[in-house]
UniProtKB/TrEMBL annotation:
It is found in: Membrane. This is Putative eucaryotic stearoyl-CoA 9-desaturase. Pfam families: FA_desaturase. GO terms for molecular function: oxidoreductase activity, acting on paired donors, with oxidation of a pair of donors resulting in the reduction of molecular oxygen to two molecules of water. It is a multi-pass membrane protein.
Amino acid sequence: MEAKVVPDLIKNRLVQFQHKYDFLCMLISNGIAFLVVGWFLDDYMGAFFLACWTRLFLLHHFTWFINSLAHTWGDRPFCQEQSAVNNYILALLTFGEGYHNYHHTFCNDYRNGIRWFHFDPTKWLIWTLSKCGLTKELKRMDSYTIQKRMVLERKRLLLGRVCNLWYVKKDELEKLVRELAEKLVVEFAEFNQLRVNYRLARKEGREPDQLKFFKQKLSILRKNLKSNWRLWKQLSRHILKLKPFESFPCPI
């Protein structure tokens, strides 16, 4: 553990204790698991294999999935250049690490699953520990950066797909992709900035009329975003369905 890499962890007594006595901590934790399961099942021999060996076997193999299956099966909405993928099923087996494409793209974010319904026990544990004072200054990537990255990566994917289609009007499709992507990025920026201004206005105790104005603008922008996002998804599905020797009418 190098001080120049993790200076905050070097100063943390609890982390240093675990780092120094990791083997002892492993023996104690496994011993407690063995005794508790053995007492509960009234079968200490079964507990030895179930709570110790079977648990460790499954834990290690599920952990290895992160560097194998999590780089093989899934989608890459945040970065096409990364081999890491997002796979919801793997998230169930790897304590949330299945959202691996996001983790590799925004590695300074303490979360793997960014939506509230994403199965990510590690995220929930870290957040809970922050409320107990055991973790602090949790890093989160702002929503605008995430949304912008998703649009730009999908734009790159769609333009690459259009380039490989010789029978379609490439110029028209490319123009449509670029214009809609740029429009979404601008609207995301406006919406996020307006939301920041609205929160600041509420904090400063601005006049009700000003707050109402902010809320109305947010409502209008939200509707525009939903409409353009729907068009973006339709356009994406249309282009991704196109194959070298067949064509479909564009829904837009």
